[in-house]
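Lab meeting prep.
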Amino acid sequence: MNLKRLLLLVAAILAEVAATLMLRASVSDPVWIPGVVVLYATAFFILGLTQRLGMPLGAVYATWSASGVALVAVLGVVFFGELLSIGAIIGIALIIIGVILVESGTPEESETVGAEVTE
């Protein structure tokens, strides 16, 4: 995987996670709402950039959404004192396994580029 695409994907994940945490914080303090809007917009913009660089949609979306879910669950414990049940912990492990499986089934860059050229 191209380093630039990977860094963009990580940035999109971090922006989405930060926005979601701010969304939770805005329940008790609405001052966080502008940050929520800006960071969600930023996350989607960066996600679009990864697509423009040729990253496969399935891999991008699976990694972005699954990583976001897992990080938000863990950071919810850290920042908001939320509890994770054993089922939630197993779910996070399954998310990680799922992302690995999706990534391992994604065609290599040369195959993806070849398919884009023929379309």
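Slide two material, second protein:
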Amino acid sequence: MAKAAWKRPGSPIGRKGPRKANPAYKRRARQPWTPADVSKLKQLAKGNTPTGVMSIKLQRPVAAIRSKAHREGISLRPANRSPYNRRTKAAKRR
């Protein structure tokens, strides 16, 4: 019988999920959101926390965080970012 394909030790090949090698969170997909989870999501969103960090802290996939925030009406956009590109005209000419 043929030998299995060569695989480097610790390689993520053959594993499933977004964090293949060492998952920093356990999968809680399709688990109901508790009121404590929603309040934690609001608190993290207010602090301009990136969604990747939120996924680790809430132990949920990024897509689940985005969809729940959308359903609850929570904005995940950073409050300190300008909505338009406001470069000066002199800088554009360079």
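Talking points for slide two:
Residues 23-77 form one domain.
DSSP finds four helices and no strands in the chain.
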